[in-house]
Write a structure and sequence with these properties.
Elements: E1 3-9, H1 14-24, E2 31-38, H2 44-51, E3 56-58, H3 61-66, H4 69-76, E4 81-84, H5 93-98, E5 103-107, H6 121-131, E6 135-142, E7 152-159, H7 166-189
Parallel strand pairs: 1-2, 1-4, 2-3, 4-5
Antiparallel strand pairs: 5-6, 6-7
Helix pairs in contact: 1-7, 6-7
Bound molecules: glycinamide ribonucleotide.
Length: 199
């Protein structure tokens, strides 16, 4: 079945942009971005999506956590798969239940290291730097009700230079994310990686 994605973002949306653009170039992949969702009205990702003619939705915290109204909106746009790309709010259980093994997240470290609440963006890279790790990387995993704990689908590592700053590490890891996130989604669309089929 073709994937119709909602990409959830909180910031720049460079991963979202990469996913949108790679699949636009490859209609045969059977992946279409139907919607970009953000918890931040000013997120750069929303302007990027609008420029590309993709509908956007801004979440209100109360509605997101205290109602299930979002499900009807996702259905309205024909969404059957969710991709988190730098989305920082915890996913409520009604949404996890509605998209079992149909929701992916990318995390900028080699989980289970450097995961959990408060471990996002530059905080992750500062912790890696402080530990003096010789490598870091990215993890793509299914999403459950806990931060960064769902089953791991794919990981890729990158060697670090001892002189790398946290910002340098961030740039190295982001390059890995850009190269790999859309490919993993393409493999899921091809049926090479499993998803629940009864949604
Ligand atoms: C990415 O590095 C992503 O792995 C990270 O935020 C960045 C978003 O960049 N996500 C997390 O830290 C989630 N725990 P982008 O907005 O340019 O795609």
């Amino acid at each position: 079945m073709p994937l119709r994605l909602a990409i959830f973002v909180s910031g720049t949306g460079s991963n979202a942009r990469m996913i949108i653009d790679r699949f636009r170039e490859r209609p045969e992949a059977g992946v279409e971005v139907a919607l970009v969702v953000s918890n931040k009205p000013g997120a750069g990702a929303l302007a990027m999506a609008t420029e590309r003619g993709i509908p956007t939705l801004v979440l209100q915290r109360k509605s997101f956590y205290e109602t299930e109204d979002l499900l009807a909106q996702l259905e309205h746009f024909g969404v059957n798969f969710i991709v988190l790309a730098g989305f920082l709010w915890l996913i409520p259980s009604y949404l996890v239940r509605a998209f079992p093994r149909r929701m992916l997240n990318v995390h900028p470290a080699l989980l289970p290291a450097y995961g959990g609440k408060g471990m996002y963006g530059i905080h992750v890279h500062r912790a890696v730097k402080a530990a003096g790790d010789p490598e870091s990387g990215m993890t793509i995993h299914y999403v459950n009700e806990h931060y960064d704990e769902g089953d791991i689908v794919y990981q890729a590592a990158v060697r670090l230079d001892p002189d790398d700053s946290p910002e340098d590490i961030a740039a190295r890891v982001l390059r890995l994310e850009h190269a790999n996130y859309w490919r993993v989604i393409a493999r899921i669309a091809e049926g090479e990686l499993g998803v629940e089929s009864d949604v």
